[in-house]
Amino acid sequence: MQVIHDEKDLRFYIEFEEGEAELTYTYPEEGVLDLDHTFVPEPQRGKGVADKLVKASMEFVKSKGYKFIPSCPAVDTYVKRHPEYKELEQEI
């Protein structure tokens, strides 16, 4: 299961026969990703797919020295379970 980062379309995704799982984002300001929506096809749910997408996004944010906004509930939940990424969250 490979996560692909499409910087042009502002998303991380994984391809499956049933379609794509994706985590989309926007840049509300320079150096800040608003991680706003996660979708996983029904047959792939409950298999850790969303976690793989979120982890890939966290590693991208970290590697660039960026911050993120966890607008998507899946992202917020992941960060609560993985507090090592909490320091990357944009202060409001």
Q: How are the elements arranged and paired?
A:
Blueprint: E1 4-6, E2 11-16, E3 19-29, E4 32-39, H1 49-64, E5 67-69, H2 73-81
Parallel strand pairs: 4-5
Antiparallel strand pairs: 1-2, 2-3, 3-4
Description:
- The protein has a five-stranded mixed sheet with strand order 1-2-3-4-5.
- It has helices at residues 49-64, 73-81; strands at residues 4-6, 11-16, 19-29, 32-39, 67-69.
- Strand 1 (4-6) and strand 2 (11-16) form a beta hairpin.
- It has one domain: Gcn5-related N-acetyltransferase (GNAT) (Aminopeptidase, 3-Layer(aba) Sandwich), CATH 3.40.630.30.
- The model has no long low-confidence stretch (mean pLDDT 97).
- The longest helix has 16 residues, at 49-64.
- It contains two helices and five strands.
- 27% of the residues lie in helices and 34% in strands.
- It has 92 residues and is an alpha+beta fold.
